[in-house]
Each structure stands twice: as C-alpha cells, then as structure tokens.
Write a structure and sequence with these properties.
Distance between the termini: 104 Å
Pfam family, one: Catalase
Bound molecules: CIS-heme D hydroxychlorin gamma-spirolactone
GO molecular function: catalase activity
Organism: Paractinoplanes lichenicola
CATH superfamily of one domain: Catalase core domain
Keywords: Heme, Hydrogen peroxide, Iron, Metal-binding, Oxidoreductase, Peroxidase
CATH architecture of one domain: Beta Barrel
Structural class: alpha+beta
CATH class of one domain: Mainly Beta
Number of strands: 20
Function: Decomposes hydrogen peroxide into water and oxygen; serves to protect cells from the toxic effects of hydrogen peroxide.
C-alpha cells in the first residue's frame, strides 16, 4: 500500500515537472503553436474506412468485388498515426532539447517519417520506365473458342484487366510525345490464372534473338558518358546499331513513320508481336498473333506538334488517358487474332512465323475479332498500381502457349528476373496489383517481403503430412508436346531470318504520299542529328536497299551522295491497312478549343458547347482571362492555351491584344485583316492550321481567319453560327486531319 502511494506521489511530481517545463507550450494550449483539438486526450471513434481505401484486391477500382480475402487494408480513419498505429500529437516539429535545438536522436517519429521517405523510390524499369496505366474489363465474343480453350475467351465472359502503356527509351519523368515505340501491356486477371499480353504499338521488333536486347537498348538509350539525349533515337549510337544490324531496319521504318508519334494511347494499335500456339478443348493446335484494334482508329501527332507537346505538356498522353476516362469517353479496343495452321515449318505464305521482324499482312490473314477491352478506371495510387505492376510472358492460362521464337524465349527469362531488382525480391506477385484473381495455392515460401502467413508444414510434393495437399490436376496448364527438331547445338539463325529488307519496302510502298513525306522528314531529322559521317552514310545505304526515292530524298536533305542498292529490291504487294489516311473514325473525347472575345459577346458559345458535349467531345473555352465570361466558365486563357492541346479550333470572336500579351510580338496583320488580333490567338490558329487541324469560325471569328491569312483554305470553315460551324467541322474530325493541307510531293 505504502509503495503504491509512493509511486503515485512520484508520478504526480513528475507530471508537475513536465507541466512546468512545457509552460504555455502544452500542446493545444493557446499560443503553443500546435493544434487546439482535444485529440488524442479525448479519443473519438475513427471514421469508418472509406470505400476507396479498401485493399485493392477486394474491390477493383471499377467497383467490382474480386472475391479475394481481405488480407490487407490501406490507411483509414481520422487520426494520424505512426506506422505502428500510435496516434500522434504533432508531425510538424522535431523533438528538440529546447525550442532552439539540437534535435534529439530519440525522436522516433522523425526517424520513422524520414527513413520511410528516404526509401520511397524504387528503381525505374530498365526499359519502358515512362508509362501510364488504367483498369478495365475485357468481354469475350466467344469467336475464339474454336481455336483456344482459354476460359476468358469464352462467349460473354468478362475479365478484369489492367493495362500499362509506355514509351521505351526515356526515364520515368521523360516526355510522352517523343518519337519512340509504345508499350501496350495487358494483365488479364482470368479465373484460370493471370494472362499477360506484353506487346507494343509496332508489330515487329528490332532484333530476332533476345540475346541482342541489351545491345539494342544500350545503343538506343542515352550515351553512357553524359546521359544524353533523353528519350530520343536521334543520336549516333542508335543509328550506328540499326545501320550495322540491318534486321532492325523494319522496326526503325515504323518508328520513323507516324506510328512513332501516336496522337494518344487511345489511338494506337497493339500487337503481341510474336506468334503464339493456341490449343482448343479437343487438343487441336493453331499458331496465332494477337492484335489490339482501337475503336477510334490509329492516329498520330504531327512531328512539330509532338515536339511542342514535349515541352508544353510532357504528360500529354498520360493526361489524355485519364481525362478521357474521367470524361466517360472510355478508351476501347477489339482484341483480334490472326490464325495460321500449326505446320512443322511454322511459316505462312512464305513468312517465317518465328521471325519477330516480320508481319503477316492482314490482307493475307485477316484479324478476327475475339473480344472487346474497355478502360474505365484510373489508378487510385500510381506507385502501388502503375509502378509496381509486373508483367511476364510466362503468365499464360491453359489454351495459350509459347512458340520457339528466339526473341520470345529470351523474354521468358528477362521479365521475372528484372522484377527481382525492381520490386525487391521474389514475392512481387503478392503486391496487390499483381495478385491473381484466381485462387493461389503454390509451394513458394519465405523470401523478402513475404506477406502471406502460410499454414501447413509440408510445402513439398509428395507429402503425407498436409494430407497430400496441394494436388496437381490434368485440367491444369499443359506445355504442348511440340516436337523439337533434331539438330546439333548451334549459335545460328535459320536462313529465313536473312531477309532484312523486303517487308521494310512493303511498308514504304503501303504508305500514302503524305505519310511518305513524313517518313522522309523523320529520317532526315534524325540522321542530321548524328555527328558521325560514316553512320549517316551507312544508314543512307540501308535506305537505298529499301527504296530509291526515299534514299534520294533523305540523302539530299543530308547533303550526301545517293548510293546504289546492295540487295535486289523486292516488290511485295502493298498492305493498304498499314496506312492511317483515308478512313473515318469516331471523334469521342476529342478536345475542341473555342476562342471567345468577351468584348464582342459570346453569341452561340453556350449552344455550341452543348452540341460538342452531345457529340461525345470536350469543349474548352479559351478567353483572355480566367474565371467566367458572360456566365460561361473559362477553361484556358490565352496565356495557358497552346494549339497542341486541341483537335480543332472554333473562333467565336477576334479578341484584340490583351495587356498580358507581353512580351508583345507585333500582332500579325494578314493582307485582308481589318482588325488586330491578340498575337497568342494568331499563334494558336497558325499552329492548328500548320498541323492540318480543322478550324471553324462564326461572327467576329472570321476576322481571325483573315488576319492569319488562312480564310478559304482547305478545312477552314466560315459559318453563320457556332452550331453550323460545328456541323461542318465534324466530318473533318472523323478523318483526323485535313490531309490536303500537308504538302505531299512524293
Ligand atoms: Fe520487353 C518491359 C514489350 C522485347 C525485356 N517490354 C516491357 C514492357 C513492354 C515490353 C510493353 C513494359 C511492361 C510494363 O509496362 O511493365 N518487349 C516488349 C515487346 C518486345 C520486347 C513487345 C518484343 C516483341 N523485352 C524484350 C526483350 C527483352 C525484354 C527481347 C529481353 C530479353 N522488357 C524487358 C524487361 C522489362 C520489359 C527488361 C523492363 C521492365 C519489365 O520488363 O518489367 O524485362
């Protein structure tokens, strides 16, 4: 009893001492500089968890329960805590020996906060570091069941997916619109295990054998001495490699075409590239290539537009993806298959199906649609989902198997291997975004970042201690018993891999004149950025082996002689489907800028905005200042708007130069101009015109067309009202660009 009293007395004395030391700095007391809420001395029940804070494995971002057990939960509730859940009084001041310090080592909250921050970053992907991802659903048409037993391709079956798009060469923070190949990787969380289709927007690859992957990437990425250029192929080492290693010429031609600068991820095709082997329920096999066909068609940026975007909005593609999903213009693709007989030679129409530098033209083997992908959910947390997602070509469900394509075979090693460094160990498939939606019952144990609490004592087979569990099953994944050719071990390619030029020429011959013009300009630009004369000359020799006109044009641009071809030119039948020009596609989610002149009033602007919304597009009002104009909300000002953001421009007025147009360039006055227009509006219109975008005007807007000197040119509309201008504009948008405006001389 006495002892208890003494303890109480000592505790009281200690408390008085603390109070005396703290004085008016008692947290929560007036003037203490710390929050005045009662918490945590008067605890209040934490708020119920917010639904979006549920563990990602239980509910997908589109709100569909995955049925997985609730094993982890992200942060929730009202009160700030330590990582251990202890509530905190203060997170703004270090614990110091008096207000002027020094800081005490014992400040465990400081150390926890800082240590965690210091380790927030993980290594970026060695390739495809820059990317964006989204959630969605794949719905199968059932048309593939004849050739594959994969359950997710059965009629009407819906499967959750996560897609990550990327560039290849740049670092995580690099610009989206650089000239490069784009990654198109899809994770299907199927009931029979995850299927990863890890493709690109280009159907061929630089190399035929994976052992050369480090070489092409070393050549294409920055120079090792100064780590420049960033996210560019326009430099010596890239062109050194592709001109010496001519199997790369086909992929390079695609890169130099408009496919290398997509308008957005929504406007890209995707290709599984390799040939896969499919097996149906009867055990019959076929060879097949996977294709993604965008609902909105394949469209590209203009090269100048891409360059401006890289500075003005480096996140152009990422923003487009997320904005379109949030606007309800859900990106959509059809998955299609090109199917070939599973012959012993593994060729089709003379094309070696194991050569990843070759396509099979769609005119020879049509792409048959087997399902639809719709992206509907943006990530909740970029790091947790987009950064940590890990794809692997070996993630295959029953019904889909690999072939002996030597590029594919090497990839089967690389993707798991790279995650060990990037995601810190072998348990990355337990990270929420990577967790299969099929039940998992493996015998993999322990390792860094092990999250599972495995029961049982016998993670081995056979066992008699865990009731023999788990069992194998005959319905599981079957490695197809494909015959392996009898041969000596060699480091050699088949002879059929030797043709490096015929399909490159076929691509060139399949392009429209304007696309050919763009290809010439791209090669000329990129090679002109090289310093080494020998490299330029060697690549020009490669162009001579593709086409004399292409070679002559580029050589002239570089000031080089035109060489003779060193291989016979082969004229394969052109494949018109490779061209982007000539079709019509939906304009869903396209951005229409509307320039207004507050001084002249906003006649017809509200009406045209509604009409744009109703057409499934997004209107953005551009005015001299922010806020509202005549009750209409302004989304962009003359200071923030740049032409690259808009797919078309409508002009509702001719705003005079505003005071903030400084540093003022002289407002340009066209020959017929009767008014002086704000120079930024003129720049906007001039760029839109140069990039072959549709431009419409009504009321005072027609004066801008006159001031820019573009009235009456193709794709420039002058109408009586905004609604009439929009009606004339829509067919132009369906064709993506006003093609006749590009000077095409080829
Ligand atoms: Fe690869 C990432 C696509 C050949 C090695 N690759 C990666 C990504 C895509 C592709 C889209 C990004 C995945 C993501 O978003 O996380 N890669 C391809 C295509 C190829 C190809 C379509 C040829 C047809 N790749 C290829 C080869 C190798 C690799 C030949 C090596 C043998 N790729 C990798 C990698 C990466 C990768 C190093 C880096 C990050 C990652 O895997 O997860 O393992």
């Amino acid at each position: 009893m006495e002892a208890k009293k003494a303890v109480k007395k000592a505790a009281k004395k200690a408390a008085e001492k603390v109070a005396e030391a703290l004085g008016d700095r008692v947290p929560g007391s007036p003037g203490s500089g710390t929050p005045t809420v009662d918490e945590p001395t008067t605890p209040v029940a934490p708020l119920p968890p917010k639904s979006e804070q549920d563990a990602p494995e239980t509910v997908t971002p589109t709100g569909i329960p995955t049925g997985a057990p609730k094993v982890s939960k992200s942060q929730q509730g009202e009160f700030l805590t330590t990582a251990q859940g202890a509530r905190l009084r203060d997170t703004d001041h270090s614990l110091k020996a008096g207000p002027r310090g020094p800081v005490l080592l014992q400040d465990h909250h400081f150390r926890e906060k800082m240590t965690h921050f210091d380790h927030e970053r993980i290594p970026e992907r060695v390739v495809h570091a820059r990317g964006a991802g989204a959630h969605g659903t794949f719905t199968a048409y059932g048309s593939a069941t004849e050739v594959t037993k994969a359950g997710f391709l059965a009629k009407g079956k819906e499967t959750e997916v996560f897609v990550r798009f990327s560039t290849v060469l740049g670092s995580r923070g690099s610009a989206d619109t650089v000239r490069d190949t784009r990654g198109f990787a899809t994770k299907f969380y199927t009931d029979e295990g995850t299927f990863d289709l890890v493709g690109n927007n280009i159907p061929v690859f630089f190399i035929q054998d994976a052992i050369k992957f480090p070489d092409i990437i070393h050549a294409a990425k920055w120079h090792p001495d100064r780590e420049i250029p960033q996210a560019q192929s326009a430099h010596d080492t890239f062109w050194d490699f592709v001109s010496l290693h001519t199997e790369a010429q086909h992929h390079t031609m695609w890169n130099m075409s408009d496919r290398g600068i997509p308008r957005s991820y929504r406007h890209m095709e995707g290709f599984g590239v390799h040939t896969f082997r499919l097996v149906n329920a009867a055990g019959e096999t076929v060879l097949a290539k996977f294709h993604w066909k965008p609902k909105l068609g394949v469209h590209s940026l203009d090269w100048e537009e891409a360059q401006i975007a890289a500075g003005v909005d480096p996140d152009f593609h990422r923003r487009d993806l997320y904005d379109s999903i949030e606007a309800g213009a859900f990106p959509e693709w059809e998955l299609g298959l090109q199917v070939f007989p599973d012959s012993e030679e593994e060729t089709f129409a003379g094309i070696d199906l194991l050569d990843a530098t070759k396509i099979v033209p769609e005119e020879l083997a049509p792409v048959q649609p087997v399902g639809k992908l719709v992206l509907t959910g943006v990530p909740t947390n970029f790091h947790a989902e987009v950064e940590q997602v890990a794809f692997h070509l070996g993630h295959l469900p029953p019904g889909i198997d690999v072939t002996n394509d030597p590029l594919l075979q090497g990839r089967l090693f690389s993707y798991v291997d790279t995650q060990l460094t990037r995601l810190g160990g072998p348990n990355y498939s337990q990270i929420p975004i990577n967790r299969p939606h099929a039940p998992v019952n493996d015998m993999l144990r322990d390792g860094f970042h092990q999250h599972a609490v495995h029961g049982g004592v016998a993670p081995y087979r056979p066992n008699s201690l865990d009731g023999g569990n788990p069992f194998t099953t005959d319905t599981g994944f079957l490695d197809l018993p494909v015959r392996v050719a009898e041969s000596a071990k060699v480091r050699e390619n088949p002879v059929s891999f030797d043709d490096h030029y015929s399909q490159v020429r076929q691509f060139w011959l399949s392009m429209s004149p304007v696309e050919k013009e763009h290809i010439v300009r791209a090669y000329t630009f990129e090679l002109a950025k090289c310093y080494e004369q020998a490299i330029k000359e060697r690549q020009v020799q490669c162009l001579a082996n593709i086409d004399p006109v292409l070679c002559e044009q580029v050589a002239t641009g570089l000031g080089l002689p035109v060489p003779e071809p060193t291989v016979p030119l082969q004229d394969l039948e052109p494949s018109p489907v490779l061209s982007q020009v000539g079709g019509e596609w939906p304009a869903d989610g396209r951005l229409i800028g509307i320039v207004v002149d507050p001084a002249a009033g906003l006649d017809g602007v509200a009406e045209v905005r509604t009409a744009i919304f109703n057409a499934g597009m997004v209107p953005l009002v551009i005015a001299p200042h922010g806020g509202e104009v005549d009750g209409v909300t302004v989304q962009r000002t003359f200071a923030t708007a740049r032409s690259i953001e808009f797919d078309a421009i409508l002009l509702a007025g001719a705003p005079a130069p505003a005071p903030d147009a400084i540093p003022a360039r002289d407002a340009k006055a066209g020959a017929e101009a009767s008014v002086t227009v704000d120079p930024r509006v003129l720049l906007l219109v001039e760029e839109a015109w140069r990039h072959a975008k549709a431009i419409g005007a009504w009321a005072g807007g027609a004066d801008v067309l006159a001031a820019a000197g573009i009235a009456g040119t193709p794709g420039v509309i002058s109408a009586d009202s905004g609604a009439a201008a929009l009606t004339e504009l829509q067919p132009l948008l369906a064709q993506h660009r006003v093609w006749p405006r590009f000077p095409a001389t080829l």
